[in-house]
Write a structure and sequence with these properties.
About 20% of the residues lie in helices and about 40% in strands. It has about 140 residues and is an alpha+beta fold. It has one domain: Alpha-Beta Complex (Nucleoside Triphosphate Pyrophosphohydrolase), CATH 3.90.79. Strands 1, 2, 3, 4, 5, 6, 7 and 8 form an 8-stranded mixed sheet that branches. It is globular, with a radius of gyration of 14 Å.
Amino acid sequence: MPAKEHLQVVCALIERGGRVLAAKRAQSKSQGGKWEFPGGKLHDGESPREALVREIAEELRVPVRVGKALPPSTHDYGKFAITLIPFLCVFESGEPHAVEHEALAWCRPEDLAALDWAAADVPVVASYLAARAGAAS
């Protein structure tokens, strides 16, 4: 039996004005209709930060500044597994465009838990909220 594919994926928690950007996956994709933080797979030889800058430029058509890393999250989807590597980010300029997503939403942190997240993103939401709570105290 071949080894299960294990993907390394980066995601951006892009903050602006006290809100964070969530992206709704296109219905035609795996996990279609679920919310996620924008990002994507690492290419060979790419660092997580380099991958995130590239992915955000491709998916949202804006430059991003990558900040602090949050704890990675691993999820087994059955046919494959992913390790999601999240970073806090800000846009350097411009407005995001939903090139690959069905919708984009600027969410208040307290509203994030109400969204129907892709399973791998659920622990990322929790770690983001915990980091914000720690920073506020």
